[in-house]
Write a structure and sequence with these properties.
Largest sheet: 7 strands, mixed
Radius of gyration: 21 Å
Number of helices: 13
Order of helices and strands: HEHHEHEHEHEHEEEHHHEEHHEEEH
Bound molecules: pyridoxal-5'-phosphate
Strand content: 5-15%
Structural class: alpha/beta
Number of strands: 13
Strand order of the largest sheet: 2-8-7-6-5-3-4
């Protein structure tokens, strides 16, 4: 067998999968596992979205479409961007993608060459790092730590920029942290990107899930066409398996996007695009209900953690809780999460799967039943100093 391209071996494996797969095996054997490990909405997709997809199939709307998506979808996205995100985009800036996953890959492929550096959040969503490796670029982590209130340390960030740095990835609301960057932080990041002439790749897949704060889109603050934004229907409408997202590019990249999109995917499946139109223009009460469900779960979770004196980051967005278990993990939270799964039948994501700054922390998904959250979080060891 010939050898694979050497850089492929540098793509790190997911540190969440190990816990997930072992939890799935336990479940197969009939064990009741509290599944708090995967970032998957636990609410059903709204009926009108499924109906639109079924109608498309039954009317044989199953053809190739324009690379950027069917016109009604791009129009629907354009109105949504104006209304919800304060982004004025022309249709040539809007490209329907196979989830935000492909939008991110597109944006990184367009902006990075082998040997380039890209700044990625640490802890951060693993795909940012994986994509960089696939492209042959080097991911350079910027830390988000409790000492800095989980906001980027702009001085340290600036100091890590070299002449190979080409882009910075920003993810707010954040997976895994659940934090939301304030508008001033976004402005500062944009100013920094401008000073060093960097692209900004903004992942906003959790835009609809914020608690007590407003989501601000980086591209709405962009004055000189440097921001790519990856959006997704996956989390908003609980349709992760349908695979629709979109990339909003800076102006003037239409011809380039048409070519790269053609080579990568040609287009998103047509019935899925009709489902996306229905989702975006249709009734949003299911989104509202989902937000309330996550918020109610958050209250349950906080009550359990507060009672045990366990430290966590109070999330402002997404549907995750970032919890400090360093008192139990002894420097290896990946091993600890596996042992915890087998001992307590509770599956959580080890923080180290999201970068070095995640050591000692776990990510818990709030898209779960309140009962699983109570049992799962109730099984976490309390720190010795906790006064309860
Ligand atoms: C931060 C972030 N970006 C992107 C994605 C991928 O989303 P999609 O299903 O749209 O590909 C996820 C999924 O977990 C995510 O958490």
């Amino acid at each position: 067998m010939p050898s694979l391209a050497p850089r492929i071996d540098t793509v790190p494996a997911s540190g969440i999968r190990r816990v997930f797969e072992q939890a799935a095996l336990l479940r197969q054997d009939g064990t009741d596992v509290a599944m708090l490990v995967i970032g998957e909405p636990d609410v059903p997709v709204a009926p009108h979205i499924g109906e639109a997809a079924r109608r498309a199939w039954s009317e044989d709307r199953t053809d190739y479409t324009p690379n950027g998506g069917i016109a009604p979808l791009r129009e629907a996205i354009r109105s949504k961007l104006r209304r919800e995100n304060r982004i004025e985009a022309d249709l040539e800036q809007i490209w329907t993608t196979i989830g935000a996953t492909q939008a991110l890959f597109q944006a990184m492929t367009l902006t990075l060459s082998p040997g380039d550096e890209v700044l990625v959040p640490d802890p951060g969503y693993t795909t940012f790092t994986m994509n960089a490796h696939i492209i042959g670029a080097t991911p350079v982590p910027y830390q988000l730590t409790p000492q800095q209130d989980f906001e980027p340390d702009l001085e340290a960030l600036e100091a890590s920029i070299t002449e190979r740095t080409r882009a910075i990835v920003v993810n707010s609301p954040s997976n895994p942290l659940g934090s939301v960057f304030g508008e001033q932080t976004l402005r500062d990041l944009l100013a920094l990107a401008k000073r060093h002439d960097l692209w900004v790749i903004s992942d906003e897949v959790y835009e609809y899930f914020t608690y007590g704060t407003r989501h601000v889109s980086l591209a709405s603050l962009d004055e000189d066409d440097r921001v790519f934004t990856a959006f997704s229907l996956s989390k908003t409408y609980a349709m992760t398996g349908v695979r629709v997202g979109y990339l909003v590019t800076p102006k003037g990249l239409g011809p380039t996007m048409r070519t790269t999109q053609e080579a990568m995917i040609s287009c998103v499946a047509e019935p899925d695009q009709w489902a996306a139109v229905a989702a975006i223009v249709g009734d949003h009460s299911a989104v509202q209900d989902a937000r309330e469900h996550y918020r109610a779960n958050l209250e349950v979770a906080k009550e359990v953690l507060d009672a045990a004196g366990i430290r966590y980051l109070d999330p402002r967005g997404a549907f995750y809780l970032w919890i400090d278990v360093s008192h139990a993990a002894q420097g290896d939270v990946a091993e600890w999460a596996l042992a915890f799964l087998h001992r307590e039948r509770v599956a959580v994501a080890p923080g180290s799967a999201f970068g070095r700054s995640g050591e000692g922390w776990i990510r818990v998904c709030l898209a779960a039943t309140a009962a699983d959250l109570r049992r799962g979080l109730g099984a976490l060891p309390a720190p010795a100093h906790a006064v309860v």
